[in-house]
Amino acid sequence: MFSFKGLSQNEVEASRRRHGSNQITPQEVETFWGKLGDNFRDPMIVILVIALIVVTVLAVFGFTEWYEGVGIAVAVVLATFVATVSEFKNEQTFQKLQEEASKIAINVFRDGSLRVVGIDDVVTGDIVLLQPGDKIPADGKIIRGKAKVNQAALTGEPEAVTKTPGDTDELNLDNPHAVYRGTIVEDGEAALEVQVVGDNTHLGKLAEALQTDERIGPLRVKLAKLADDIAMFGYIGASFIAVAFMFKAIYLDNGGDTAAMLAYVSHWQQLVYDIATALILAVIIIVVAVPEGLPMMIAIVLAQNMRKLLKSNVLVRQLMGVETSGSLNLLFSDKTGTITRGQLEAVGFMTAAGPGNAVRVNHYKSFEEMPPELARLLDISLRENTSCVVNCETENEAERILGGNTTERALLKFVRADISACIEEGAEMVSQVLFNSARKFSATRIRLNGGEITLIKGAPEILLERCSHHYTDDGSIGPLPEEEKPLISEEIDKKAEDGFRLIGVATKTDPTPNQMEELPEDLTLLGFALIRDDVREESKPAIETLQSAGIHVVMLTGDRSGTAKAIARDVGLLNGDRKLAIKSADMAKLSDEELRKMLPDLNVVSRCLPQDKTRLVKVAQEAGLVVGMTGDGVNDSPALSNADIGFGLGSGTEVAKEASDIVVLDDNIQSITNAVHYGRTIYRAIQKFITFQLTVNVSAIAIAFLGPFLGFKLPLTMIQLLWINLIMDTLAALAFSGEPPLAKHMREKPKAREEHLITGGMWSSILCNGMFMTLVCIAFLKLEPVRGLFHSEAAFMTAFFGVFVFLNNFNKFNVRVEEFNLFGHILENRGFLRVVGMIFVIQVLITYFGGEMFRTVPLLPVEWLYILGISIVIIPFDLCRKYICWIFE
Q1: I need a labelling partner for 678 at 20 to 30 A (CA). Which of 4, 188, 709, 834 fits?
Q2: Polar residues bias located where (predicted)?
């Protein structure tokens, strides 16, 4: 256990003034104007700009009106500007949340004790405690201890290198005494003296080059494929519409008379104008059909949910994580801190006692109840064989025991290390072997009172097997015959089945090697600490919610089988038929095929090793499952990286967090449930947007294609179509992006990897409503009684424009819910109501003030009632469609 005076507060301030801050200058991100420029280079916008140039040239020669070019220009600028504002705002929000929630806490010696400070507060001259899983906060040299450091972040080499104390004037990556910011401590414990901070560190100089690319999730891959398919549909539809327009101009308008058609063709100015109009109309149809709002939609809906998720203690590091969580169907969850509270408390100590061979088991509920000599031995064992640093005199209770893990901190509190000094002073550490999940023990050899003793703690069954003696109540040493060990083992099993975690404590006076990978023989047993970790109240309901959502939950733990089963029963993981619990050693004997067959019934893996986690992920993915994995340790990073969704735990190591897609800040399984819920909500919101958009596509393209054959050159003008495109893409994305998470989403089955984004129900809505709106529009255009409702031909065409917009705006209510109640939970997405209301208001304003540009004239109040009455029929029609679908389900 290290101890340094460290810098005083005045020395810290002086160092910061002289050498600068440890904060690395943030990388330059794309500015608003840069993003706006990129959006203007979008292929669809480029096509529109070309169309704008063509229209402008035609206007100069008198073939078209000036306002058509202005209308296209306004549409281009407005659509691009709104999209850019939304994307930029949400990206800024995401980056800010990442920076705020990803701050690293560092253990630093200052003013004679160990303190916790933020990484940006580290200064040159600080002495930092480094332990497994820590991310090194600055460049410097090792002055005490030894550590294996993974420098892959700087060198790309995966093998850890050993760092030892030594003086160095030159910091280079091959130096065995120097360590660097951003690298990870994999094993060992050391003290670092900081020499270089901030932008002057190796990482600071390479920060821009080391920027990692965001992984693209399966949802966005599906969306990109869908966008390409829709675009192809738009290109084909636009071509047919251009041909249909020219067919009307050349053949139908001339009654099929050859002479008239030749005369039309010879009038080249009119021919050029009509060809240009046909081409521009085709371009506008492409713009309407191509879903340029899809990328913006997912950016908006993901970013909008970032803050909501953070309130639920979920930090999204990779957007892919929350995308994929909606498809999760298998979750491997840690026990400690995730299903249990993670607030470990040592509540007793169990010893082997008795004269001679008549061994019995004694139970002590507190440290004070123990015999003085046993208490002294336990105090030394737990204080000296630990990775924690004890500051029992500090006023800040949270800083009295720092470093180490939760188990070690619980053991130190049992011997009152947080409030009293060590009973036996003057111990000097000779060597130390830190705990890891493979060796399952830690050992420290100390020099005390002129002699040496090795202090060992670890898994109880391993220690008991290697013990040949035990301490009696008076501190003397007695034999521990092999035939008496089953009695002790039985007591261990009973406590484990009651839900306790047990830690064995033993000693050895004979010399031991400095680096032990296996326990030596002939240990002397001191006893077993009983540690309680209560189950979270919310764990059982959260697991039930996940199970009802079709997600299979498997608990992984390093605890004994009895402890694991007890906790699993409490949270409902082992209740019912065909529920299996398996030990790591037994799982190792199974082939991958045997393990794959066992997965549907597997619920608990005890004594789980990091390599077991990686294997489970691989086997589950080969079975076609979408796998989530939780992890907090250094060795968990391969499993977290390989899983479809890696859930790092907030209390875990930095390397585990960096390997994850989502960080669960409170370690709670309920927070994982929330992440899944939001993932499904996002998936649903995108499906609603697609349904609405494709419905508009079907009706707009059908009307534009059929219009010329019905005697209308342009039922909807180019500028009107651009306004409809704005409604369909940008504003619809904003309307559907705020849909709330509903309880019913967690009663649905997970989405399969190969499942199409557009379901049968969506196709029913798209085709039925799209064709119905087309029929309504055709009837409106062709029925004389309808024409007679309006005071002029201009008012009639204005009303047709209004009917088409209102039909689609009312259809948003149909698309928003699958049920019959169109107003269900509508107040939970007030943005939807604002967007729908805004479209109605703007359409009215366009009608009165659009003039020739939008081909509109003011309408009488009664004419607005006709428009509302005709357009609202889409709602009862869709309710009938839903009812018919419900009958045939």
Answers
A1: 834
A2: 1-12
Catalytic residue among 121, 334, 644, 729: 334
Pairing label, strands 360-364, 345-353: antiparallel
Is pLDDT at 478 greater than 80 in this prediction? yes
pLDDT of amino acid 440: 85
Write out the E strands in 463-621.
Answer: 467-471, 477-479, 501-508, 523-532, 552-556, 580-583, 602-606
- Burial of 444 per CB tally in 10 Å (0-12, 13-18, 19+): buried
Helices 372-384 & 406-414 angle (0-180, nearest 10)? 150
What's the whole-number average pLDDT of the chain? 84
Average pLDDT over residues 663-685: 88
Domain borders along the chain are 9-22+122-206, 219-304+676-888, 345-511
For residues 316 and 90, the answer to whether their CB atoms sit within 8 Å is: no
The phi, psi pair for 666, rounded to 5°, reads -105, 10
Contact 636, 617 (CB under 8 A): no
Structure tokens at 366: 């507190």
Query: What CA–CA distance (Å, rounded) separates 681 from 683?
Result: 5
pLDDT at 186 (0 to 100)? 83
* pLDDT for the residue 292: 58
> Quick one: how many helices (H) and strands (E) in the chain?
32, 26
Select from 3.40.920.10, 2.70.150.10, 2.60.40.10, 3.40.50.300 the CATH code of 9-22+122-206. Answer: 2.70.150.10
- CATH homologous superfamily of 219-304+676-888: Calcium-transporting ATPase, transmembrane domain (1.20.1110.10)
Contact at 8 Å (CB) between 119 and 22?
yes
Amino acid at 277: T
The DSSP result for 773-823, as a single string, is HHHHHHHHHH-HHHHTTSSSHHHHHHHHHHHHHHHHHHHHHHHH-SSS-TT
Examine domains 9-22+122-206 and 345-511 and report if their fold is the same.
no
pTM given for the model: 0.76
- Shortest CA distance to 571 belongs to which of 559, 550, 553, 557? 553
Q: Span 345-511: which CATH code?
A: 3.40.1110.10
Residue 389: predicted pLDDT: 82
Residue 200 is encoded by which pair of tokens? 């002057």
Q: Tell me the range of 225-229, 291-295, 546-550 where mean pLDDT is highest.
A: 546-550
Residues making up the chain, counted from first to last: 889
The three-state DSSP-derived secondary structure of 70-126 is HHHHHHHHHHHHHHHHHHHHHHHHHHHHHHHHCCCEEEEEECCEEEEEEHHHCCCCC
> What amino acid occupies position 418?
D
334 is catalytic: yes
Helix (H) or strand (E) holding 137: none
Q: Of 500-514, 538-552, 729-743, where does the model show the most confidence? A: 538-552
